[in-house]
Amino acid sequence: MIEVSGLEVRYGAVRAVRNVSLHVGQGELVTVLGANGAGKSSLLLAIAGALTPSRGTLHLAKKDVTGYSPERMVRLGVAMVPETRDVFPDLTVSENLRLGAYIRRAQTSAVNADLQRMYTLFPLLKERQQQAAGTLSGGEQQMLVIARAMMCDPKILLLDEPSLGLAPTIVNQIFEMIVELKATGISILLVEQNATKALQIADRAYVMRLGEIAAQDSAAAIAEASDLRAMYLGG
Amino acid sequence: MVELIQFGIDFLSLGGAYALMALGLVIVYGILRLVNFAYGELIMVTGYALYLVNGTALPWLVMAAFAVFIAVLTGIATDYVAFRPVRAKSVTAVLITSFAFSTLLQNAALLFISPRPRNIPLPDIFSRTVEIGGVITPVRNLLTIAMSVIMLALFAWLMRRTVIGIAMRAAATHFTMARMLGVPANLIISSAFAISGLLAGIVALFWLGRIGSVVPGIGLQPLLVAFIATVIGGMRSLQGAVLGGFLLAFIDTSLNYSLPQDLLKFRDAFTFSLVILILLWRPEGLLKGPASGQRT
């Protein structure tokens, strides 16, 4: 589905992502783990087209899409949920969702059907559809951005730390939703700091440290690896 | 009572024009976080477009539509010439290119037309007066009020009900996120410049209508008015721009009514002193707008 090879992302002189290669197969849920500043978010932003890689290539369904703009990436089926969530605060919940379907705004009936589907999946959003998105709680905003990303009918969903700063019960709900989304056949690349939870639902996992891939294996194998803590703590 | 009606008409017609001018400036600022200093020249090109079609047999409304169309084109051209090539580089670069584009247009007018005022065609209705509740007032003022109401309503509808309007509001808070939903950056920015040109062009008809002629430096005062109105109202809020425009007009009109004759020529000094007071009280402007604001 998506294939990253030798990717490097720079912020001036700082190399945030160095020589990273990874792939996500059709319908697969792959997680990227790592401590703060390991380069996980930069990696996702580069895949989404929001950061231009200084080296390396990005292929989507065998097509070279290196250096594409974010607009083009989403039209090719790559949807991004950034760590910063970025709901549009002065737009209502329903306007946020409709904007998620911007690339297929002409297909009115399909968009409306998907909107109803999202309201069934996230009943809280339905209750608050006329409310400004900036007034939602953190957990509700997270649900909104995931639902908004799904509105473009993506083939692959990039999720950056969906559990960040949320109460444990909400985190459980979010992870249940990710499992539900995976069941629909979509590929998911999940960046998380909550390694235990992410490894429970993922098929495969990569561990990043200081911008590089430090380990990769099946989720079960990574979960058993004894040096996981050490990798997080930089030991 | 008569005085009050008179004041109301003066205030509303000036406020409507100020509000629309401020909106035209803030719509671009909201998305790019950059002030378009070539904004005043949109008023100027509208004037010269009117001057150039003066004497043709066209009805005035057609001439006016043509002039507004030129303002829209100039607005879009500002994006292509001054903003797009350097947008991603630095704030300073865009500041300078937008000043340069402004100077270029002014000098083109000086060189190819004339440094002296040129008459523009006006419809008869602009010079007529009408009596309302004992007040004799130019019809032009009433038309300005009506036009402001229509334009503000149209603008509100555009921003709330159309996909492009919603996308523009979204881009004003999280530009990159909007792009990651597929909203094309260039389209949004060009639309903002086009709307900016439309607002400036329409205001120009009435602004110039009071004077009856156009000079190359005509754009400076409207730019200043729009800039100050947005600063008072809050640079990041569309409602703020409208509020700031009306507030500035209220201050101006009140001073016009209350200052003695020989102080009247210092009116702007009084206005700006009040503006400084408002900013000391509310440094971010009256309305804050959505909490975010990465430059793009």
Distance between the termini of chain A: 34 Å
Category by helix and strand content of chain B: mainly alpha
Largest sheet of chain B: 2 strands, antiparallel
Radius of gyration of chain B: 19 Å
- Percentage of residues in helical conformation of chain B: over 70%
Number of domains of chain B: 1
CATH topology of chain A: Rossmann fold
How many E-type strands of chain A? 10
Q: Estimate the mean pLDDT confidence of chain A.
A: 91
Residues in helices of chain A, as a percent range? 25-40%
Lateral strand order in the biggest sheet of chain A = 6-7-8-3-9-10
The most extensive contact between chains is: A-B, 28 and 21 residues
Strand content of chain B: under 5%
What general form of chain B does the structure show?
Answer: globular
CATH superfamily of chain A: P-loop containing nucleotide triphosphate hydrolases
Helix and strand sequence of chain A: EEEHEEHEHHHHEHEHEEHH
* CATH arch. level architecture of chain A: 3-Layer(aba) Sandwich
Short précis:
The complex is a heterodimer of chains A (235) and B (296). Chain A has helices at residues 40-48, 70-75, 93-100, 108-121, 123-127, 138-150, 168-183, 195-201, 219-224, 228-233; strands at residues 2-11, 14-24, 29-33, 55-60, 63-64, 78-81, 156-160, 187-192, 204-209, 212-218.
Would you give an account of this structure?
With 235 residues, chain A is of the alpha/beta class. In chain A, 38% of the residues lie in helices and 26% in strands. Chain A has ten helices and ten strands. In chain A, strand 1 and strand 2 form a beta hairpin. In chain A, helix 3 packs parallel to helix 6. Chain A is globular, with a radius of gyration of 17 Å. With 296 residues, chain B is mainly alpha-helical. Chain B has one domain. In chain B, 70% of the residues lie in helices and 4% in strands. In chain B, the strands form two sheets. Chain B has a two-stranded antiparallel ribbon with strand order 1-4. Chain B has a two-stranded antiparallel sheet with strand order 2-3. In chain B, a hairpin with a 2-residue loop joins strand 2 and strand 3. In chain B, helix 1 runs antiparallel to helix 8. At the A-B interface, helix 2 and helix 3 of A face helix 6 and helix 7 of B.
